[in-house]
Every structure is written in structure tokens, then in C-alpha cells.
Amino acid sequence: MRIYFDNAATTPLDPLVLEAMLPHLEHNFGNPSSIHSHGREARSAVENARKTVARLLKCSPSEIFFTSGATEADNMALIGAVFSIGIQHIITSSIEHHAVLHTAQWLDKKGFAKVHYVQLDGNGHVDFDSLESLLKELPKALVSLMHGNNEVGNLTDIQQVSKICRQYGALFHSDTVQTIGHYPIDLQVLDIDFLVASAHKFHGPKGVGFIYINGKSKIESIIHGGTQERNMRGGTENVAGIIGLAKAFELAYEKMDEKKSHILSVKRRMIETLQASIADLLFNGDCLSESQSLDHVLSVATPIHESNDMLLFNMDIEKISISGGSACTSGATAASHVLEALNVNPDRGVIRFSFSKYTTFEEIDKVVSVLARLYI
Ligand code: PLP
């Protein structure tokens, strides 16, 4: 059996999600825009899915828009804020996902908005004083800061960021891809303009996600075509995907605390056994802090050693799927903008272990023993 420790890249589909999706791939194949009964059935399934998502996030269904995933949703938020609301400055961090960073940089390059970067502390956390100094200087700003970092796991206190944004009249967008479905998010408490999710990060299907757009922050579509998603996204809906997303989201909230505590205990076991088995191994970002890092992500910098060259490849031969700094296709640990920003020594290897509700203690022990053999 292969061991899969790359759940920050994607998670396996929950069998119950597949079961919920199948009828919408087989018999209920109608187009939600059609007015006949096949179409109406599909429309009602999509609207029920929207209600499920809204109920769990405690917002209005009219604030949820289904997309092809988080990349599109991040693009929608940033481009929409600039083009529809007149945002002139985007304040973000150097360790955001490329879905945010490259969109912000594109807007800057084209002269539509200016990008500014907040300072980070030694562990890679946002320096709130630096955020405030930027906000004092920059009117018409959108702050885009992720909730959980996908590479090193750092958590940002988005409640605090929201308060600061509101104090200075700035809009706030957060890439919540790594926390939606893992942490409870209550939009009655969190005052935010845009947040985004991707179903495949919480045991749903790939190619479907959503954006929450606060009813007070109206933006226009960036995808033009039909009137789907209340004119916010032209194109026939991915009905089975949307049903799968809602089912996965519902399942994610069932026994969420129990699952969180299981994932945290496997992470603890991994930290303890790694520390006991491999000398001179470092933890990246703030992985060792339980309150300030994601339960499911553990990023390590291996000792400077010849094994680093073929690390992911050798682990793959041992039937262990892990990733380097970010999902990469070459099998080698490629330099990542996040690790560079955090000054991780490039001579070390980097492994990102990421866990799920399915991860077992036996798997942890097996992975650590295989790794320890490489670093003797
Ligand atoms: N944002 C974060 C933090 C992610 O981890 C990912 C996926 O890796 C994305 C955005 C993009 O998600 P998708 O590829 O599903 O569009």
C-alpha cells in the first residue's frame, strides 16, 4: 500500500462524496439553465448545495458563487475589487499562493493597481504593525492575506486582520483554501469581503470551488457568457462537482473537532519521531506552534546531505508520496518563493508532509523510519 502524505496538494475523494455525485453524472444530467424537468432537477440540486455551504459558513446563499476552484476565485476577488470597486492598492505578503501573488503582480504590471508587501517576522507571520503602516498611507486598498499557508502551514489571525482592515476602511480578501473544511469559519463573526475554497482540499472533487462575496462588496464577473451564477460566472455549472463540494463540506463539519485532534496527534507523533531519529533536522515556518500553524502541514528542512538530491524520488520508490516546498512535477525539491522568503537554506532538502483524517500512526512510523535510513 502506498502512503499518501500530500494532502495539502489534494485529498482523496471521500467515498460518500462519490456516492452523492454519481446520480448527477448518470441520470440527473440536466443543464440547470433548462426549464424542463431535467433542468429544474439540476437547478434545485445546485441551489441546495449553495444553501448547504451558506448554512455552514453562516452567510446568505446569495453570497456564495461556485467556481472552477480557488485559483479562479482568487482572480475574481482581486480583479473584481480593482475593476469594480476602484481598489488602487493591493497589500499582500510574499508567501501567498501564486493564485493571489501572480494575479496581484499582473494587475501591477498592467498598471491597474500597485502591489505592496507586508513585512513578516522571523517565523513568517504577518507583522501587524507593518500592515497598519501600509494602510495608513494607502487609500482604496485591498488586503489579501491567506489564512493557512500551504507550504509551511503558518496560520494568520484573520480575525485580527479584519479588524485592522475595517479600522482603515480597507477591503479584506483571504485565501482560505487550506482552512475551509478544516477549521470552523463563522461569517457572523468574521467580517471579510471575499474568501475562497477548493473542494479537493477537503475530500471533494477537483475543478470546483467557491467564492464568498460579502453582500456589501459587489463586484462584476471576470468570465463573460451566460447568466449563470447570477451573472457572476458565465458557463454551464459543474453540477456533479458542486454536489460533491457541498457533500464534502457537510462531511467536513461532522466531528470536525475529533478529526482535527486526530490530525494534530499524528503531526505531534511525526515531530517527536523525526526529532528522535534524525539529527540536525529543522522545522520550517512556525510548524512547531500548535496554535499558529495548520494541524495538517509539517514542513521540514533536512540535514545537508547527499540524499537531498533524490529525496522525493527515493521516497516515491519506497511508496511514499510527499512533496517538496510546493507541489512540483519534477520529483526534485524546487526552490519555492515561500521557502526563499523564509530564508530556508537551499542546501538543505525540504519536505512538506501533509496529513488527513485517514493518516495513521503506523504510516507516520514507517515514513520516519524510511527517512532516517536515508540520513544515516
Ligand atoms: N490557494 C492555496 C493556498 C492553495 O493551496 C491552492 C492549491 O494548491 C490554491 C489556492 C489553488 O487551488 P486550485 O488549484 O484548486 O484552484
Structure description:
The strands form three sheets. Strands 2-8-7-6-5-3-4 form a seven-stranded mixed β-sheet, with helices on both faces. A three-stranded antiparallel β-sheet has the order 9-10-12, with no helix packed on it. α4 (98-109) links the parallel β3 (89-92) and β4 (114-117). It is built from twelve helices and twelve strands. The model is unreliable at 326-333 (pLDDT under 50). It folds into two domains: 3-11 and 255-374, Aspartate Aminotransferase, domain 1, CATH 3.90.1150.10; 15-253, Type I PLP-dependent aspartate aminotransferase-like (Major domain) (Aspartate Aminotransferase, domain 2, 3-Layer(aba) Sandwich). The two termini are 25 Å apart. The protein has 376 residues and is α/β, with parallel strands linked by helices. The chain has helices spanning 15-26, 37-57, 70-85, 98-109, 128-137, 158-167, 228-231, 239-253, 256-277, 311-317, 337-341, 361-374, and strands spanning 3-4, 64-67, 89-92, 114-117, 141-144, 171-175, 194-198, 209-213, 282-283, 297-301, 320-321, 350-354. Helix content is 39%, strand content 12%. The structure holds pyridoxal-5'-phosphate.
Number of helices: 12
- Work out the number of β strands: 12
Average predicted local confidence, pLDDT: 95
Classify the beta-strand content into a percent band.
5-15%
Order of helices and strands: EHHEHEHEHEHEEEHHHEEHEHEH
Shape: globular
> How would you write the strand order of the largest sheet?
2-8-7-6-5-3-4
Distance between the termini: 25 Å
What's the multimeric state? Answer: single chain
Molecules bound to protein: pyridoxal-5'-phosphate
- Main sheet characteristics: 7 strands, mixed
CATH class of the largest domain: Alpha Beta
CATH architecture tag of the largest domain: 3-Layer(aba) Sandwich
Compute the number of structural domains.
2
- In CATH terms, the superfamily of the largest domain is Type I PLP-dependent aspartate aminotransferase-like (Major domain)
At the fold tier of CATH, the topology name of the largest domain is: Aspartate Aminotransferase, domain 2
- From the helix content, strand content and strand pairing, which structural class follows? alpha/beta
Using only C-alpha atoms, the radius of gyration works out to 21 Å
Share in helix: 25-40%
